[in-house]
Design a protein that fits this description.
By secondary structure, this protein is mainly alpha-helical. The protein has seven helices and three strands; from the N terminus they run βαααααββαα.
Length: 177
């Protein structure tokens, strides 16, 4: 499961095309955008879905919580000391039983699908069950990948700041040459 960040943002695709047609390599800006967005995904996990106006994920059922706590106690993770060490204070976090899916969104991590090209950036995971949670296929829908209004404003800001800086560098290079 992954998303190409600009596929749903027409204005961004047009600006990106303008940049690449000008001969400027946009991949450093795309890397910055992807890195920014993976940070937003991590915030989504930390806040259990609630991020910049997006609603919180549906709470875990009492049965799921009981299973998780029982499993943690059997593995020696149910102690107060273990909970404090993990920073969770005994709270059962949604979509974070093992932490595998959350860690899989970190660039360079196992199962991560972060890719940058000359005119694209993809962010995602190859963890098989991630898509089920994203779409609500036989489980409660808990979107991990979504764009908030803040994201939609940040992407063009990063891209345009980069473009302006490169144009300025070009102009200064011509003056000095």
């Amino acid at each position: 499961m992954y998303v190409r960040i600009f596929d749903n943002l027409k204005k961004m695709r047009a600006k990106l095309k303008e940049i690449t047609n000008s001969g400027i390599d946009a991949s450093p800006a795309l890397q910055m955008i992807g890195t920014y967005y993976t940070g937003q995904i991590d915030r989504t996990f930390i806040k259990e879905g609630e991020r910049d106006g997006h609603p919180r994920w549906k709470a875990l059922s009492a049965r799921t919580i009981a299973i998780r706590l029982s499993k943690a106690r059997k593995q020696g993770k149910g102690t107060k000391k273990a909970a404090e060490k993990s920073g969770r204070s005994g709270k059962v976090m949604i979509l974070q039983d093992t932490g595998l899916m959350r860690r899989s969104f970190i660039p360079g991590g196992i199962d991560n699908t972060f890719r940058v090209g000359k005119d694209f950036v993809t962010v995602g995971t190859s963890v098989p069950y991630a898509k089920k949670h994203q779409t609500g296929d036989d489980v409660p829908k808990r979107e991990i990948i979504f764009f908030t209004e803040k994201d939609k404003k940040m992407f063009p800001k990063i891209l345009l700041d980069f473009y302006k800086a490169r144009l300025l560098e070009r102009q200064q290079g011509h003056k000095n040459g």
